[in-house]
Amino acid sequence: MLTTTRPRTTPVPPPCPDRACHTDIHGRLWKDTTYLRNDPDNWRWYCSRCGQHWMPTHEQFAWYRTLPVA
Ligand SMILES: [Zn+2]
To answer: Which residues of the chain, if any, have pLDDT below 50?
Structure first.
């Protein structure tokens, strides 16, 4: 079912998939748009704790596309 309404609450970025980061305050992912260029779906998650980039899931690409997640 398609909906055009935007969510009322700003979604919180997910925690890092690395379980070692879950308990760390820096273990939340950042939306890294460094390589965005012309493709709005070319962003990646970045974990400032372990320094790794993670591929967003299909749902996350749709969910976070237009939202200003820092
Ligand atoms: Zn991490």
So the answer is: none
Residue from 24, 25, 29 nearest 14 by CA:
29
Centroid of ligand 1 to alpha carbon of 51 (angstroms): 6
Count of domains forming the chain:
1
Q: Which domain holds residue 32?
A: 19-64
In a domain, 7, yes or no: no
| CA–centroid distance, residue 2 to ligand 1 (Å) | 33
Question: How many angstroms does the Cα of residue 43 sit away from the middle of ligand 1?
Answer: 17
Rounded to whole angstroms, the Cα distance separating 68 from 55 reads 18
